[in-house]
Write a structure and sequence with these properties.
Low-confidence stretches: 1-20
Largest sheet: 5 strands, antiparallel
Number of strands: 11
Mean pLDDT: 84
Radius of gyration: 29 Å
Strand content: 15-25%
Order of helices and strands: EEEEEEEEEEHEHHHHHHH
Structural class: alpha+beta
Strand order of the largest sheet: 3-10-5-8-11
């Protein structure tokens, strides 16, 4: 809630002051079990079944992967990978890579619930493309953990909450971006399917959504396992197969219908798609016998 500036403020003060009142924040009950820096040799690996704590590690240099036995997730510089509790884990560095990382370990009455709330799962990787604020929080937490001041432990716990909160924000923002990318992918795929006979290029489609051709190509290939052009060719070949099996048009006419000026080039593309020549489909579905 925005609080109004004090009306009795002297008129010669030019700066406008805005005070913000937030709702009550209930921090989870956590204890910081450790915080430090490690440099691991190439092919370093670590496994665990049941752990009394949870761990978040930020990669400074190097790459590798982490797995719970059902999924394998890669990590690289700037990423945070996490694990612990009752979920088994195994992680290791890539061959030829030295892994430099900073880590925090925490436990406590709310550790499991906090991990699911902040990180979304007991094991995984969160990519952080911005890096700055999160990196500083890790370093500050490690710095306080090494101090012996009376309030150092309390401040270190505060930084732990900052790290977990920051990771939750990153995860939330990426989830929104993912949802937007999914919608864009389905719109783009539908646009290709509805216009494949007159399709010109990915740039032509990008103008109509709108988006950039490179981004559309990237999200399409990530979800379909093929480029938009390859999918377009597949749709055209499937249409050509349907027209050929009807038998009411020549191969040259059908080739021109789907945008092939050269019937020989069309025949090669058709054979590449179905393994047979267009002429073999005149009386039904293509046969390789």
């Amino acid at each position: 809630m925005l609080l109004q500036p004090n009306s009795s403020m002297p008129s010669d003060i030019k700066a406008e002051v805005h005070l913000y009142q937030t709702g009550q924040i209930a921090w989870p009950r956590l204890t910081l079990e450790g915080c430090g820096y490690e440099e691991c040799k190439s092919s370093y690996q670590r496994s665990g079944a049941i752990s009394p704590f949870y761990c978040v590690e930020r990669v400074i240099e190097g790459s590798g992967w982490i797995s719970d036995g059902t999924q394998k997730i890669a990590f690289s510089p700037g990423d945070c990978f996490f694990y612990g509790g009752s979920t088994p884990y195994h992680y290791q560095t890539d061959t030829g890579q030295v892994l430099r990382k900073i880590w925090i370990r925490y436990a406590g009455e709310d550790a499991e619930a906090a991990t699911h709330s902040y990180l979304g799962a007991p094991m995984g990787v969160i990519e952080d493309s911005q890096g700055g604020a999160l990196e500083l929080a890790f370093e500050a937490c490690r710095g306080e953990a090494e101090h012996t001041q009376p309030d150092s432990a309390e401040i270190a716990i505060g930084y732990l909450h900052v790290i977990l909160s920051r990771l939750r924000r990153i995860r939330s923002e990426k989830s929104k971006l993912q949802a937007g990318a999914d919608r864009l992918f389905y719109d783009f795929k539908s646009l290709i399917e509805e216009n494949f006979l007159r399709w010109r290029s990915t740039k032509w489609g990008a103008v109509r959504l709108p988006s950039s051709p490179s981004y559309l190509s990237r999200i399409f290939k990530a979800r379909m396992g093929m480029s938009p052009h390859r999918y377009l060719v597949r749709l055209k070949m499937q249409h050509a197969l349907f027209r050929l099996t009807k038998g009411d048009s020549s191969i040259k006419q059908i080739a021109a219908e789907i945008g092939f000026d050269d019937p020989l080039y069309f025949s090669r593309a058709f054979r590449k798609e179905f393994g047979v020549a267009p002429s073999s489909t005149r009386n039904g579905a293509p046969s390789t016998s």
